[in-house]
Amino acid sequence: MAKETAILRTFTGNINSDVLASFLDDMDNIVLKALQEWFEAKGHSMSGKLIADIETEVTMSRGDIIIDYLAYKYGAYLNSGVKPENIPFNPGSGAGKSLFIDGLIRYVQQRMSIGDLKEAKSIAFAIAHTQKQKGMPFKTQGEGSHWADSAAKEAEPKLESLFDGLAEDFITKNLTQISHEFNR
Fold first, then answer.
1. What angle do CA 19, 56, 152 make, to 5 degrees?
2. What string of H, E and C letters represents the secondary structure of the chain?
3. What mean pLDDT do residues 70-93 have?
């Protein structure tokens, strides 16, 4: 998106703050919509919390606009996967407590609506053993579902169109202003 970066670097100093705010809102909506659609399309949605809690941070530096989307770490794990050797589970270690197993128990209770703690724990251990063999998510063999990567790829042409519109609006407005000043 080098062209778009150049457009922003050239024009951000001269763009009305309302226009820029509207542009950033439109951009944010495109990205968040694509993230939500791909997250659900890959079958990850359970509570909707990951998508609902995504935070957008916008910073400006020397004419560049930097937009970071911040989400819970497990979103990255679902996107990129976790290889079997990196699953934090060591069968037979004798560890009395495991945050990983505790998380899987909560997952089982929510995803499968299993209220019985003993049954949920048994299923959580079965999942942990499978993940230790195949990675996470195990249906992708630890390669991840690439939900966020797919969303970025889908959003890119829409964002390019948005950038083009911003540049066109800016140029039209400035040419009109120059024309008015010239014809005085």
1. 90
2. CHHHHHHHHHHHHHCCHHHHHHHHHHHHHHHHHHHHHHHHHCCCCCCCHHHHCCEEEEEEECCEEEEEEECCHHHHHHHHCECHHHCCCCCCCCCCCCHHHHHHHHHHHHHCCCCCHHHHHHHHHHHHHHHHHHCECHHHCCCCCCHHHHHHHHHHHHHHHHHHHHHHHHHHHHHHHHHHHHCC
3. 90
Residue 87 · residue 103 · CB < 8 Å: no
Mean pLDDT within 22-40: 92
Q: Are 169 and 14 in contact (CB under 8 A)?
A: no
Nearest Cα to 56, choosing from 33, 81, 79? 33
CA distance 90 to 135: 13
Predicted TM-score of the model (pTM): 0.72
